[in-house]
Amino acid sequence: MKKRKRLAILAAAAFVAAGCSWLEPPGSGIARCDKFPRGGYSDGRDGRSSDSTETGQQFIPDTIVWASAVQVPDDYYWPRDTAMGVMDAKLLLFKDDEQVLSLPVGAAYGISPNPETHHLIGGKLYTEFNSASGTQIRRDGELVCHYEGREVLKGLLPVMDDIFTLGLDKDDNSLVYRKNGTIMLKMDGARALGGLGENAPALYMDGGHQYFAMHQSGSTYLVTDGSMKKADAMSNLVMDYRIADGVPYCIFTMGNNIFLLQDKKKSVLCEKLGALEDFHIIVTEDGVFAAGTSSGNTMVRNIRDSCTLEFEGESLFLYESRGKMFSVRAHRPVTVREADTSLPGNGKLLMEGSGCYFFSRGCGFALEGSLYLAVSAENGPPFIWKDGEKLREFSLNGYLTGVEVQLTSPN
Fold this sequence. Notes:
By secondary structure, the protein is mainly β. 1% of the residues lie in helices and 52% in strands. It is built from 1 helix and 36 strands. It has one helix at residues 9-12; strands spanning 21-22, 62-71, 90-95, 98-104, 118-121, 124-131, 134-139, 142-147, 151-159, 162-169, 175-179, 182-187, 191-192, 204-206, 209-216, 219-224, 227-230, 238-244, 247-254, 257-262, 265-271, 280-284, 287-294, 297-302, 307-312, 317-321, 324-329, 334-340, 345-346, 348-353, 356-357, 364-367, 370-377, 383-386, 389-393, 398-408. Strands 1-30-28-27-26 form a 5-stranded antiparallel sheet, with no helix packed on it. Strands 13, 14, 15, 16 and 17 form a 5-stranded antiparallel sheet that branches. It has a 5-stranded mixed sheet with strand order 22-23-24-25-29, with no helix packed on it. Strand 34 (383-386) and strand 35 form a beta hairpin. The longest helix has 4 residues, at 9-12. It is globular, with a radius of gyration of 21 Å. It starts with 8 loop residues before the first helix and ends with a strand.
């Protein structure tokens, strides 16, 4: 998962099998009610705060579920894709049950059917598209950036009225940091740590500052608000380096082990033998976690108390909220597990679906201790899954490309 995959929809169809099998839902609990989580996962958090009256009465916020989908004609069997991108298709945006946007898909419109080019951030649908004429970024269908260079986005960060991007140029293999399409930094032969569609974003905010880290010429660099300096890290042996609440965290290899460096405090995560180079730092409102593949499974270390979880499968998508860590295995069969971040052990199985599609990390969102999944089925309409049951079904022939959940102040 270190490399961002850009596969056609047909490639995903390779792991289809018949039917969907849903397990018993997880145990219910008392949800605490906060409001105004940050949209998307641009800074790795789901910020929250309480709202109460002078008498101490707490308001219960409303929940909005955003979902994006690609719709194709009713007589077209999209899992066996033969004409995707050149046929009549639409990109739709739903706000709960209401369709609020419909955009034509195709090169002529600068919108791709690939789910990994669709990004729900703050209730806005951003799309990326690159061709021989350059790169286009659209927000709800409106062109907001168009620049020369065929860049695959590694980071997308809307800040007020500005849009910051981190892109990998396909032609010269450079890493390009832009503000509203204008180049701020261009780094030849550099590789970003993290990225869109990965558990750890490449471009993120912390304490009002923008950050991203990268490898270049055997060294690791941290870029803060566009200013680049060498990181306090172990050169190109670094797997991840990021700032959380102003504290630097670094995962690196040395000798026979993989280490975590937390503000100059070093500890062993696991042995290097049998581990993949996919270890990364996950930052949420509840804490900081180190995760990666070891001996065929995905391990997650709660850095606060060193509690270690283990999920079956390699390089899983991970989501955390309210002390619950969820894992999603996107390949056949789509599998979801849950674990308590304060208790060591293996995650319990919540769902196992054959014949179901989970296209990208953007198809999952955790909030208030619940996991929302945008699930597409081989035979049947796509739907939103929440805590063991179908929350919403969409009457269309096509597939879901993303989901985002927001809490708003009540009416």
